């Protein structure tokens, strides 16, 4: 009787889903969206979470230190091969408008005494990335805001230019506030609001999962099993998802947009970095009409 009971229990336990089946994509995406309500994940979060001790800083969930002894491997990659770092938590501010107006106002928050500025020819052409320290308008050498890096979009024959400024998330709000002040930018009429990570009550009712041993998990919605939750892009962790992320000046026509987590940033270190890029990125054929 005991043997028959054990065999019967074993057959019943075999009907339960294994861990791989329980972690199907249909439920993982909804769970990932829920877990990002307070701290935003980078695109490489899953990879880092399996190999690093994660910390919560500046509204993001970042890898702090590896779980294994990988310092020698990292050093070897930096000196002989290629090492990739995810810097997507850096915030990107996009400035669009006339080149003369951009340079005129940007000159107020930097100084040639600290090095090359936005007006340097090689940087202005868009061929190279520049770096400098920003200050409050007309306050140099006092009231320093912090270091930034920038790159211009190459000229296309028009007087309108695009400038991307990369700032640390801890400095973003101060620098953004100063840029909006010198360019006299205010919120546009149509406020662009990013879709929040929180799930509404209606979506939660649609995404209720029926759990029963030995049966396939289903979602109670109109499409049934075909419905798959979609990943929601919510911007970055340095602003409220219900706030606007685009501002424009009615007098100068300069537009400022917050492109954080929309333009990803990676750093390649090592002698084979250029080879990795050339093998990864393929140049498109330019067709002239």
Automatic annotation (TrEMBL):
A single GO BP: tRNA 5'-leader removal
Pfam families: POP1_N
Signal peptide positions on this chain: none
Cellular-component GO terms for this entry: nucleolar ribonuclease P complex; ribonuclease MRP complex
Domain Pop1 N-terminal: residue ranges: 4-97
PANTHER family reported in the protein's UniProt record: RIBONUCLEASES P/MRP PROTEIN SUBUNIT POP1 (PTHR22731), RIBONUCLEASES P_MRP PROTEIN SUBUNIT POP1 (PTHR22731:SF3)
The protein's name: POP1 protein
The species this protein was found in: Pitta sordida
